[in-house]
Amino acid sequence: MRIRVAHLYPDYLNIYADRGNIAVFERRAALRGHSLEIVGVEPGDTLEPSAFDLVYVGGGQDREQALIAPDLAARGDAIRTAVAGGTALLAVCGGYQLLGRGYRGRNGSAMPGAGLFAHETVAGDKRLIGDVLLDVDLDGLTTTVVGFENHAGRTLLDLDAVPLGKIVAGHGNDGTSGYEGCRVGAAIGTYLHGPLLPRNPVLADWLLGRALVHAGGTDELEPLPDELERLAHAVSAGRARSRGGR
Ligand code: GLN
Fold this sequence. Notes:
The chain is α/β, with parallel strands linked by helices.
């Protein structure tokens, strides 16, 4: 099958090689006989998110976020409609923050958000940095997710918002709640870089599966050996555990 992917702001949001997540989608799809058609979307470009099976937004610093925030916020209705219709989405760090209701950066500047995730973010004084380990439940698929966080933003989820996972080690959304990320349908927002997906093949395949279903196929993906991926996952998990809890 052909999976249509919208990569939002690749020239602005690509911190810690977040672009690598797209490479993982591409490779894991190809190994199962599927292909990705990737469209880069920059500010001002026309976009119909519902026409895509997967939307991707990487992370970035406050300066880059401020440059794209109004454009992303203006796409809020269309993105919410697409996700309600089953489009899968992955947003990392800066992209995750701006898919909430808004982000107040380190210099106090208020950036509008797209309002997909029920949260608000405010930058704190101390950055939250280090390896992270999460327990995650994706509609009954329980797994661990690992990654690296580095953010000033404290993201406060509304009481009825669903986090991506529970912190085993690391800071997560705000350093105190014990939760990380947010999920709405097949849309996932997270602070975890790495890039995230090379060391989290279960999460990569879950998103790929959701995108395939949106494309009119099934989410049954032939298993891959994933020896290196599992090793990388274990190394990250070990580093996070040795760092300890919050
Ligand atoms: N600028 C944001 C923050 O510091 C996001 C940083 C990032 O994407 N790593 O909170």
